[in-house]
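INTERNAL AUDIT FORM
Audit reference: QA-55
Scope: verify that the stored structure record matches its stored sequence.
Auditor: D.O.
Record contents follow.
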Amino acid sequence: MTTTAETRIIPLIPLVEATGEEQQQKLADETWRKSIPAQVFLNYFFAINYHIQENDDVLGGLQNLPFFRSHNAELNDADVAALTKLLHTSWSTEYALRATAELGDDNFLRNALHWTFPQAFHAIHSSLQAFLYTTGVRSNNNQLIRREVGRLVVKNAYPRPVSFYAAGAYGDFSIHRLPLAGYKAGLHIASKEIDAQAQVGQFLRTTRKMKAQWTRAQVQTNPNTAIRSQKTGRPLDKWTASHWQQITWRLGYTTIFDLLGRLRISQTSREIERYVEADIDFRLFHTSLLNIVSYLNGVHETYVAKALGLERYRQLVAELPAHLQAGFVEDRLRTRVEPVLAPTPPSAPAIATEAPQYRMAA
């Protein structure tokens, strides 16, 4: 039996094992690469919060909106009870969201995303339902709520900081009330208004794109609505611009509430695990979410207070459950609701006439 001798190959350039420092750098680069989706998501919500804070002033506030000034509702005792239930749900969810920040360190906040994401969404969703209730929209249907709030945003029912929206067909989206949204969004936390608007604009476009693709899938899998080939009669796989335009009406408008809808991620979703394992500033993420929740809930609470009457709303707040007393709800009544519905005359020095700066969540 003959054997073939192995040929030993000697490299011209000796192999050098990676040093500990190089291995650490490689590991850091890999961690950063995996963290990019979570970092972008953080950038988006930080940018929304940044834009709100930069534009939250008296001129862009509720009191200057014709829609707000004309807002009223005839409410009986059953209506007041329904509104109270919705607000208590919102406030209790926000209370839990705030408690997470008070109880946890950075590592706790990392793992808390499993419940803080849906908590942030539902805290706003319940207060939105209370606002819509005063406009005559009394439904739990998410699609109906989304469509109605989209119309309200476009009709200037919301203050300037959150009145932006996207419209148009797939491939031809337009961004409204964000004049700097056309600039290229970066991968870093916004430090200027141009950065914030660019990132919010990108968030609107990607969210509307996802909605358009989802809507197309729903249309094409339904035999009664599918757009078909004129030759074969089968549902089309490839769409032209004209096909996308045919379903644009189904998309409605894409607003801040659609962006917040992106937080509705299942606890078992692989996507949220990417966020939990990422190397990002989780405390900043939580703070941004909480500020957005507090701002929007303050808007909705002011609408409800106007519909109820300020004294009736004050009574509702005075009768809060024990865990909500002497807390953020009363603080928002004092700093957000009362300055709009019962502004202090300029001659009285007790309360500043200028709207309070909203740098931290009330």
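Auditor finding: record pair retrieved intact. The chain has a mean pLDDT of 87.
Action required: none
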